[in-house]
Specification:
The protein is built from two helices and nine strands, in the order E-H-E-E-E-E-E-E-E-E-H. A hairpin with a 4-residue loop joins strand 2 (36-53) and strand 3. The chain has a single domain (6-144), classed as 60s Ribosomal Protein L30, Chain: A. Strands 1, 2, 3, 4, 5, 6, 7, 8 and 9 form a nine-stranded mixed beta sheet that branches. It is mainly beta. The chain has helices at residues 20-31, 141-144, and strands spanning 5-13, 36-53, 58-64, 68-80, 83-93, 99-104, 109-121, 126-129, 137-139. 11% of the residues lie in helices and 57% in strands.
């Protein structure tokens, strides 16, 4: 993959009460972002994060039915089946300051969330299922220069 450059930066406050993953995906589709990076902060009313179990080839979901601080939201935007797709991870803390994290799953209810999206240009990244990686949809090898 050749050099990438920043095309534009989009900063938004997401809809309170909305689902974090759903709102991120709606935002990238609305803005027409097919390649990018994202970062965010805020708080959730409840959360769901996943950890991929390699042996079972499925996500183990950890749910938190409590207010959680978003210490870090980070991820990327690429294409999956030709549509913009957000892949994001969360680091969260509870009222005691204990940290939890994982893959952003449906079920993260937004209290407040501010995100920054960097739309990139210079490549096209497409996600495809990989049998050798538990069926996870990963960037295609021709996009990143590896097998």
């Amino acid at each position: 993959m050749g050099a990438l450059s920043v095309k534009r930066v989009v900063m938004r406050r997401l809809v309170p009460g909305g689902d974090l993953l759903e709102e991120l995906n709606k935002l990238v589709k609305f803005e027409g972002i097919g390649l990018g990076a994202l970062s965010g902060i805020g708080a959730l009313k409840k959360a769901a994060v996943g950890i991929f179990d390699v042996e079972k080839q499925e996500y183990i979901i950890n749910e938190f039915d409590e207010e959680m601080e978003i210490c870090a939201l980070t991820g990327n935007v690429s294409l999956k089946e030709g549509e913009p797709f957000v892949h994001a991870h969360l680091s969260l803390s509870d009222r005691q300051g204990r940290a939890f994290g994982g893959h952003v799953m449906p079920g993260c209810e937004i209290f407040v969330a501010e995100v920054v999206l960097w739309e990139l240009e210079g490549a096209r990244l497409e996600r495809r299922p990989r049998d050798d990686c538990g069926g996870l949809s990963l960037w295609a090898a021709e996009n990143i220069g590896t097998e």
